[in-house]
Amino acid sequence: MPSSDPVRVGLIGSGWITEQHLAAFEAAPETVAVALADYPRDRGGRPGRGEAVAAQAGLTRYYPDYRRLLEQDDVELVTVALPNALHAEVTLAALEAGKHVVVEKPLCLRLEDADRIVALAEQKGLTVGYAEELCFCPKFVRAKELVDAGGLGRVFFLEQTEIHEGPYSDWFFDPTLAGGGALMDMGCHAIEYARWMFGKARVEAVTARIDTFVHGHRGPLDDFCLVHLDFEGGMKALLQAGWTQKGGMTSSARILGPEGVLKVDLLQTTGLEIYSTGGVPTADVYPGWQRPGYAWLWENGYPQEMSAFARAVRAGTQPSESAADGRAVLEIMWAAYASAAEGRTVRLPYTPPEGLTSPVQVWLQREAR
Ligand SMILES: NC(=O)c1ccc[n+]([C@@H]2O[C@H](COP(=O)([O-])OP(=O)(O)OC[C@H]3O[C@@H](n4cnc5c(N)ncnc54)[C@H](O)[C@@H]3O)[C@@H](O)[C@H]2O)c1
Predict the structure, then answer these.
(1) Per CATH, which fold does 135-297+330-347 belong to?
(2) What integer pLDDT is reported at residue 76 of this predicted model?
(3) Domain boundaries in the chain?
(4) Residue minimizing CA distance to atom 32 of ligand 1
(5) pTM score, two decimals?
(6) What pLDDT sits at residue 55?
(7) What is the rounded CA–CA span in Å between residue 364 and residue 369?
């Protein structure tokens, strides 16, 4: 296929993020969506909205079982947008079938699976994009340019917050399907933000405090965390992530250097504000004072990340956010749960205890230890 053709995409999943992916592929000139599939029900998949989502997007091909999608010769790249516990199986199957992959965050649950994904992509010469869109948000990209250009001097501290009132689907509260709570869902964004802003410097140590404050009635998972990272070179990051903030989401950072400070707020300072007693449910605007996005998809970096992944596919390279980055984030999350469970700083590399299959198990078993 000539290298100037748009990359032909098959989407796996039909939930909230798949709808953003479809809009992103529509907006990104380097890509074209051609088919959509779900995880098969006979293997534990839940009834999705796949057929309707595909039709709405004008796709004529819908497969209730993603394995049929992987047999389609014209599909070059697939997205994996399913509950976290299914990422490894589907990503590895896609790579085995010769497809490039975009995996939603978190990459997967077990470090062994992350290693297998990285190794298989390398062995097959395939691209794996790790869908951390914060690294593609124009406001954050601009902030990084200013930091990299030396505006603050040699940066030494970063704090980042990723918090909203909690997820929309039940599986996020299921330890088996999610593998962790707010740390896995929101903390993974904050961790990769810090790694990216500090030029992917190695994380040497992790110290975390993790709690369940608001959503305990829905299950045992964590809904609030503070994670401190010590980076090689001495830089520090303090990350706050949660499902515990009413009234809209915060995604923001403050970065310190000897010559200055940079503050960046992705969602709360667009210059557009609305007070509405009932909110605007069709536009995700809550009651009360809100600051809605004016170009939400673009502001949140979704088309830009898909363009970058497609360019990496055509160039035969790994993208700037790759499976190796997802693996690094996963190791930090395992270490964070262990740190909170054991009340100590955990140095990397971290090796999970034998027999555990998801990061949060270390923390859920804390009282038994
Ligand atoms: N990058 C981001 O900003 C972002 C935002 C939201 C979600 N995500 C990630 O995307 C992935 C999918 O999240 P989502 O928001 O689309 O979720 P969702 O609940 O809206 O959709 C889940 C999808 O998985 C399917 N599924 C298969 N087996 C299932 C099962 N046993 N239980 C429940 N659903 C099952 C559903 O049919 C549906 O297609 C997750 O890994 C999540 O962490 C990323």
Answers:
(1) Dihydrodipicolinate Reductase; domain 2 (3.30.360)
(2) 98
(3) 7-132+302-321, 135-297+330-347
(4) 46
(5) 0.97
(6) 97
(7) 10
